[in-house]
UniProtKB/TrEMBL annotation:
This is Hippocampus abundant transcript 1 protein. It comes from Ficedula albicollis. The keyword Membrane applies. GO terms for cellular component: membrane. Pfam families: MFS_1 (PF07690). The gene is MFSD14A.
């Protein structure tokens, strides 16, 4: 009886639109900040546990774990997006944050279960998707690119201090305290969603009951990909996104491990690197992005971002000294302007009734990359015999491994070639165009649940451009 009362009370909280104030971008920003701050604390402990659990083929196993998580996110994102269109954003914010953070306490309980749950948690690890849906509900079209940039910058801000704090606390008091602190912050995030986050989806856009039908096309992760060839401009954009995000997804999954192995960075150095990169990314995605969009235009901003990404990946691939990694990190921060610019281009080019279809295609491409990228990087590290011998490597050992290798980071060089192809494809994308991709079933859904006064279609909220990235 007591459990039933608790369940009813929790259901009441989830279904209530009330929160603190009216829905705003700042609610979404706090949710993202707390979630990734918790994971940022675990940066150094995760590297240690990963090496201790998989002493052989560490890069390969890391790639497979993150690859499975990414593929599961790709498969589940459309269904979760469609359900959030029907049941509201608040309940799915709670669901995604809870399952994304569920592996945290398992790190010290059972490392094998920790990595297993990380892989399976990919089914619900789509917090960014729901957060961008939340933002799309409450912003006008001309405000959306800046709002997306603010949320992306918040992700970077959450990693400015948390890895350094986690490394310091782990060295001073042990990793157990870090895990407890990360778990507490994750619980704080869940409580914030329950108590403070108001529902962003207007009542008239949601059915009265939880039994509204969901069509298979809405839940089919490959449905949006099937429409890619219907418009040549959409095809060019999707190819550009695939070729540029595939190496980025792989880089996110393995780069901190790479800094420890090849460059001999300490935990404190990795934390400092993340902090500097985060600060520069915040500046790039807010001030620099706004200036570039006004001065050189949308398409040229994308090309500039891709150019920075090529330079960054090539520097990572050939770099043989720690200072080269720091310099390449500064370039990497500038390359973070690419995807907010792509999002803005798609939003401006597509008609209001086509936003969801076009954004869904790009979301599908990026979700696929989140699965393929980490696995590909892990496999390339494996075939080039880049393995961990001892995690806290002395500088002399690290330097020797670099000298004996012509290409210290083979996957990054592969990534640079991939982004170069993306840049060549992006040259053919026109600055201003109308994207003509239709979806009759999607329109039916829009007609049944649409808001006549909302500038964005519900489909855009269902399938925003940006996806979760791996910490």
């Amino acid at each position: 009886m007591f459990c039933m009362k608790c369940f009813n009370h929790l259901s009441f909280l989830l279904l209530q639109p009330q929160g603190i104030g009216s829905p705003s971008v700042y609610h979404a920003v706090i949710v993202i900040f707390l979630e990734f701050f918790a994971w940022g604390l675990l940066t150094a402990p995760t590297l240690m546990v990963l090496h201790e659990t998989f002493p052989k083929h560490t890069f390969l196993m890391n790639g497979l774990i993150q690859g499975v998580k990414g593929l599961l996110s790709f498969l589940s994102a459309p269904l979760i997006g469609a359900l959030s269109d029907v049941w509201g954003r608040k309940s799915f914010l709670l669901l995604t944050v809870f399952f994304t953070c569920a592996p945290i306490p398992l790190m010290k309980i059972s490392p094998w279960w920790y990595f297993a749950v990380i892989s399976v948690s990919g089914v619900f690890a789509v917090t960014f998707s729901v957060v961008f849906a939340y933002v799309a509900d409450i912003t006008q079209e001309h405000e959306r690119s800046m709002a997306y940039g603010l949320v992306s910058a918040t992700f970077a801000a959450s990693l400015v201090t948390s890895p350094a704090i986690g490394a310091y606390l782990g060295r001073a008091y042990g990793d157990s305290l870090v895990v407890v602190l990360a778990t507490a912050i994750a619980l704080l995030d869940i409580c914030f969603i329950l108590v403070a986050v108001p529902e962003s989806l207007p009542e008239k856009m949601r059915p009265a009951s939880w039994g509204a039908p969901i069509s298979w096309e809405q839940a089919d992760p490959f449905a949006s990909l099937k429409k890619v060839g219907q418009d040549s401009i959409v095809l060019l954009i999707c190819i550009t996104v695939f070729l540029s995000y595939l190496p980025e997804a792989g880089q996110y999954s393995s780069f901190f491990l790479y800094l420890r192995q090849v460059m001999g960075f300490s935990s404190e150095s990795v934390a400092a690197f993340i902090a500097v990169l985060g600060i520069l990314s915040i500046i790039a995605q807010t001030i620099v992005l706004s200036l570039l969009m006004r001065s050189i235009g949308n398409k040229n901003t994308i090309l500039l971002g891709l150019g920075f990404q090529i330079l960054q990946l090539a520097w990572y691939g050939f770099g043989s000294e720690p200072w080269m990694m720091w310099a390449a990190g500064a370039v990497a921060a500038m390359s973070s302007i690419t995807f907010p610019a792509v999002s803005a281009l798609v939003s401006r080019s597509a008609d209001a009734d086509q936003q969801g279809v076009v954004q869904g295609m790009i979301t599908g491409i990026r979700g696929l990359c989140n699965g393929l990228g980490p696995a590909l990087y892990g496999f390339i590290f494996y075939i080039f015999h880049v393995e961990l011998n001892e995690l806290p490597m002395p500088e002399s050992s690290a330097g020797g491994s670099v000298v004996n290798s012509i290409i210290p980071g083979p996957p990054f060089l592969f990534g640079a070639c991939s982004v170069l192809l993306a840049l060549l494809v992006a040259l053919f994308i026109p600055e201003h165009t109308n994207l003509n991709v239709r979806s009759s079933n999607w329109k039916k859904h829009c007609g049944s649940h649409g808001h006549p006064h909302s500038p964005q279609a519900p489909g855009e909220a269902k399938e925003p451009l940006l996806q979760d990235t791996n910490v």
